Amino acid sequence: MLWLGWTTHGEAATKHKQRWVPDLLKDPGMVWLDRLFIFTHIGLGAVLAGIGYALGGWTMAASFVVWGMFVRLVAILHTTWLVNSATHMWGYRNYPTTDQSRNLWWVALLSYGEGWHNNHHAYPRMAKHGHRWWEVDLTYRAIQLLQLVGLAWDVVDYRDHEEKVARDAG
Fold this sequence. Notes:
single chain; 170 residues; mainly alpha
């Protein structure tokens, strides 16, 4: 959880991002989201408060902000931390990896497929985390939908070069 409060600035931040997410630095939309992250949340809170106030006064405004901002963020952050804690303690492994990552079905359901964590650690670039027919991965389905309408491209949906060649040939 320390990554939330641990930030670097200036040249150190640029070097860190160039090492770990060089493709995201080339996308102006992602750079915009990174730079304006806190401001977009403040703006969303203001919009929610305005809608709530228009519908029912200050009580409704407060309710919209609490549920639409704070409860939502707490749920999302705790689900993220659950993926990175529970799936390193319990579950099964499809692949031998150098860590203790595991696939855990109930975490996958809560996190829309991110609980297939061993699959992710074995093939981190692969968009599809559910590698067996019963490993439901709603995040990958959303990516496929975005790809279908032209909002996602160059999606890595294969494990290695051989699988890509076999899939493209068949």
